[in-house]
Amino acid sequence: MTTVIKNGTIVTADLTYKADVLIDQGKITQIGIGLKGDRTVDATGCFVMPGGIDPHTHLEMPFMGTYSADDFESGTRAALAGGTTMVVDFVLPGQGQGLMDAAQMWHNKSGRANCDYSYHMAITWWGQKVWEDMELSVKAGMTSFKHFMAYKGALMVNDDELYQSFKRVGDLGGLAMVHAENGDVVAELTAKLLAEGNTGPEAHAYSRPPQVEGEATNRAIMIADMAGVPLYVVHTSCEDAHEAIRRARMQGKRVWGEPLIQHLTLDDSEYQNPDWDHAARRVMSPPFRNKLHQDSLWAGLQSGSLSVVATDHCAFTTEQKRYGVGNFAKIPNGTGGLEDRMPMLWTHGVGMGRLTMNEFVAVTSTNIAKILNCYPQKGAVLVGADADLVVWDPEKSKTIGAASQQSAIDYNVFEGKVVKGLPRYTLSRGVVSVDDGEIKTREGHGKFIARDPRPAVNRALSAWKDLTAPRPVARSGIPATGV
Ligand code: DUC
Ligand code: ZN
Ligand code: ZN
Ligand code: ZN
Q: ipTM score here?
């Protein structure tokens, strides 16, 4: 059975034009005028765009003494409801656990997914077993490796481990990723704040100022440069980190930054709310920042120094957040956003004149598909691409609220925000999962997307400066100066 999306305007990262899209067996088979199919999806007045890709989710993840509350079923249902057709989740090996063992645990959970998904592998400890498993991970299509520079005593890796792992990732043609916060300083500030009696959720933000993120981002970039690996910085939340990324890119380094929709649209005044629950529900790392940092992130998306908008969807219920009553360091870190990323970015980006529609597609889908090497299977409206599409109605609006959301938690950090621009239809490999606004997801429909390593030409960060080459020696035996 074929499906045709008719009467819409196709919007890609490059082009805006009127055409119909024909879908057969989950793939786009034709783009043109006057196409016919067995089923018609009416896109009159709508934009037909590549479905969103959220490259940063934590579904059913063991973390801070509990599990994040959205699993692959509710998480991907929320994704589709908001126009996102693929998520990339983080496999998080336990201490001493092999990477492929952990991947198997994730496979056991992800069988319930409603849309396609891929995995990043987290490097949560370092040893021979991890080094060996990294090659198996790449062969199995998990080619991106995330490192935590924070969460001391738990997930954090030190600089020697970071360098060794980055080098290995580079040799395997993979992509290095970092959660960039200086975990040692965060631990110091946390202990000091608690000792002084600052136990409330607002102190979470004081324990993780922009400087800890700026320092770690800069350090990760320098270590990646020395290791010869491209670097993706997750949840870039502040100017301090953005500045380091901007500078690296100006120097010709392959570095990308990923602001979150939360950091773009919510600020640190949320932590001053006298309601403990309100503030604790917004505890995530990095924390929300002030409006100057928000301006920096928007400018980065506009100028291209920041490349991708994600969510870091890691949702916890109010009950789970209350583990941290009396000690902010025990509040499970994380917020939701999967369902709201696209409508919020459209409203605050396209709707407010900050982004073009083509830029919207680039930062919600196409750029990350290219960075993660799954373009044009994903992130494209092209013949041969997967029919992961959203039919976007720019006139449809709603007020965001927990009462009507797909996520399993009991609140929404965007509660009360009005969005204009929502999916009329969302298609996951041709399966209509949002049907004229109605949720019709299919549990188990989602498939794992394996990704090849990056082509060799993409591996080097600073191709012009080979740090491992022997230095030239002058005839006198005195090393020549300069490189
Ligand atoms: N930050 C969060 O807020 N949650 C999950 C992990 C992370 O780095
Ligand atoms: Zn993180
Ligand atoms: Zn509130
Ligand atoms: Zn995360």
A: 0.91
Residue 479: asked if its preceding bond is cis (omega within 30°), the reply is no
CA of 56 to the centre of ligand 1 (A): 10
Write down the number of H helices and E strands in the chain.
15, 20
Distance CA 376, CA 383 (A): 9
Cβ count within 10 A of residue 462: 16
58 lines ligand 1 (CB under 6 A): yes
Phi-psi region of 379 (alpha: psi -120 to 50; beta: other; left: phi over 0): left
Question: What would the two tokens of residue 364 be?
Answer: 């919600």
Q: List the shell of residues around ion ligand 4, using CB closer than 5 Å.
A: 312
Phi, then psi, of 249 in degrees rounded to 5 = -65, -35
Residue of 170, 74, 90 whose CA lies nearest to 123: 90
Whether the CB-CB separation of 11 and 350 falls below 8 Å is answered with: no
Are the CB atoms for 242 and 305 separated by under 8 Å?
A: yes
H or E stretch at 216: helix 210-227
Instruction: State pLDDT tens for residues 358-396.
Output: 999 999 999 999 999 999 999 999 999 999 999 999 999
Protein residue whose Cα sits closest to atom 4 of ligand 1: 334
Please tell me what DSSP assigns to residue 64.
T
Beta bridge partners of 304: none
pTM of the predicted model, to two decimals?
0.95
- Residue in 433, 423, 426 with CA at minimum distance from that of residue 114: 433
Taking residue 483's Cβ as centre, other Cβ atoms within 10 Å add up to 10
Per-residue pLDDT tens over the stretch 114-155: 999 999 999 999 999 999 999 999 999 999 999 999 999 999
